[in-house]
Amino acid sequence: MNPLTVVASGISRGSEDSADKAYGKAYAMMSWFGVAYLAGKRWHNLSEGERTRVMISRALVSPADLLIFDEPTTGLDLDGRETVLRELSALASRRDDRTMLLVTHQVEDIPAGFDHIAMMGRMTEHECMIYLDAHPRVYATLDGNTTPGTITFAGPIGEGLTDERLASMFGISLHVERTRGRWKAASRSRLA
């Protein structure tokens, strides 16, 4: 199988598009995403980063209303990572009625234009009570829930990515900042 066929398979079965038109759309998406040069290669010869970018092209060519990107920058070199983040940011900025869900462990991998966040983690009961007193908008169901995977915040990204919240979740002193739409977090000990 070649990458062009993989991307074309993202176009819904039963679509009114002819095979030629589907392949044309697939190739256009690969071009937009910077991977058209891979179209004729064999799938098993692609690097992990190339496969990731092809699979993201496949997701984007589909007519799906919900796109889920699970750690889309894993295994990518710096150029590949920045390409993925730039294109996801462009897609988010278009506001084309599609919902995009991005799963990541790195705040640096959140593309500009993503405006809401659901954070999962663990808080001690004491931290949870202090946090709930200071931030009454947080779900009341958090009261005392220290289970890993608990949603500790859901809402606007600027309200979610704070020094206090991330420090509480990870148990280390952190500084979070946003520059030109991109997020960054660093240990305070590294900032000194």
TrEMBL record:
Pfam families cross-referenced by the UniProt entry: ABC_tran (PF00005)
Domain of life: Bacteria
CDD domains for this protein: ABC_ATPase
Gene Ontology terms for molecular function: ATP binding; ATP hydrolysis activity
Residue stretches making up the ABC transporter domain: 24-74
UniProt keywords, alphabetically: ATP-binding, Nucleotide-binding, Transport
Family, similarity comment: Belongs to the ABC transporter superfamily.
Family matches, as PANTHER family: IRON TRANSPORT SYSTEM ATP-BINDING PROTEIN HI_0361-RELATED, METAL TRANSPORT SYSTEM ATP-BINDING PROTEIN TM_0124-RELATED
Protein name per the record: ABC transporter ATP-binding protein
Organism in which the protein naturally occurs: Bifidobacterium callimiconis
High-level lineage: Bacteria, Bacillati, Actinomycetota, Actinomycetes, Bifidobacteriales
